[in-house]
Design a protein that fits this description.
By secondary structure, the protein is an all-alpha fold. Helix content is 82%, strand content 0%.
Length: 177
């Protein structure tokens, strides 16, 4: 409005025509300049709106990707949990099976040890029986040798056969050779 102050008055007709035309030209220039600035601001605003729209689209894409990744991570966690449960179950089954096998082997080992103990006891009984039989046989042989040493030495040919059969102790055929 400074320009209104610069307008000079004409003598009977209002303002001087040159000042008015200059003010109108300045106003037109100012309006055109403001229009150019407005168009530039609108262009910048439109560019910013396009950029904002692009950023919103990228943000939506990133949110979608984040949701997809979250779903994938959740699936992987579920898969991991399933695998852990399966591995735990399998390990438990293996341990139970190993315990059963160990128990069966222990039972079989104890059974075999029992059988071996029976066999050892039988062998010890046989040995004791054999020792007793050998002692009896040794005693019998010793007794027979003592009787032979105490009896007068006579030839068997000198003893009549009837007497040999009736007087002689029972002699096993194995000892007559």
């Amino acid at each position: 409005m400074d320009e209104q102050q610069q307008l000079r008055r004409a003598w009977l007709r209002g303002y001087r025509q040159g000042d008015v035309e200059l003010a109108v030209a300045r106003g037109t220039l100012l309006r055109e300049q403001l229009q150019i600035e407005l168009d530039a601001a609108r262009a910048r605003a439109a560019a910013m709106q396009v950029e904002i729209t692009e950023l919103h689209r990228r943000l939506d894409d990133l949110r979608k990707r984040e949701a997809d990744l979250r779903d994938t991570v959740d699936q992987l966690r579920d898969h991991r949990d399933t695998m852990e449960r399966d591995a735990t179950t399998r390990a438990r089954d293996i341990v139970v099976e190993a315990e059963h096998r160990a128990s069966a082997l222990r039972t079989e080992g104890l059974r075999q040890v029992g059988e071996l103990q029976q066999q050892v006891e039988q062998l010890l009984a046989l040995r004791a029986g054999l020792s007793a039989a050998l002692k009896r046989v040794t005693q019998d042989i010793s007794d027979s040798l003592d009787r032979l040493a105490a009896a007068p030495a006579r030839a068997l040919e000198q003893i009549p056969e009837e007497q040999r059969e009736s007087d002689s102790p029972e002699i096993d055929d194995r000892f007559l050779r």
